[in-house]
Amino acid sequence: MQAIAQEAGIALDTVYAAVGKKPALFALLVEAAISGADVAIPAEERDYVQAIRAVPTASGKLAIYASALRSIQERLAPLFRVLQQAATADEGLAQLWKGIAERRARNMLLLAKDLAATGQLRRDLNIETVADVLWTMNSPEYYLLLVEGRGWDPAKFEDWLKDAWSRLLLEQ
Asked: Per-residue pLDDT tens for 125-161?
């Protein structure tokens, strides 16, 4: 927080007064990264969510989401790396981390239901399993493992994710 105040050329108390403690500041940063804007945009109002809901095919929905996720993770994954490390020493950040993961899980359940409505999901998968697969593979950790850890280009990650989801989740 002190480094932020110094970089901004303001007093530390001003940072706390403007955004609150570390968890509140990190929450703002995360929401901005997810939204791709200076302010948080509710999930249902994001362009890619509306596009997913409008397209009739499951493969189309997954392609839109893979593209959106690539853009989101390019902004978000580096923040998550810092948040994950800092959460071990700060209970407020640990709770933020947990809350974000739970919200992602709820959102993936909504996406799984939207995919199921197309009638194109594998019949041997239930909605919860589909949501869990999406949740696991849309995590910042997954992105970081492949893009930073294995040197994948973000475009390769997007293409691979779209293909993997299609093979794992859809009737062939």
From this structure: 999 999 999 999 999 999 999 999 999 999 999 999 9
Helices (H) and strands (E) in the chain, counts: 9, 0
89-133 residue pLDDT tens: 889 889 988 998 999 999 999 999 999 999 999 999 999 999 999
Q: How many CA atoms lie within 13 A of 152 on its CB side?
A: 18
Task: Give CA–CA dist 143/157, Å, rounded.
Answer: 8
Query: How many Cα atoms within 13 Å fall on the side-chain side of residue 54?
Result: 9
Q: CA-CA distance, 172 to 167, in Å (whole number)?
A: 7
Q: Find the helix packing angle between 154-169 and 127-137, rounded to 10°.
A: 170
The residue whose two tokens read 């800092």 is: 86
Match domain 22-169 to its CATH number in 3.20.20, 1.25.40, 1.10.357, 3.40.50. Answer: 1.10.357
Do the beta carbons of residue 81 and residue 29 sit within 8 Å? no
Strand residues in 28-129 grouped as ranges (E): none
Predicted structure pTM score: 0.85
What is the chain's percent helix, strand, coil content, to nearest 5?
Answer: 75, 0, 20
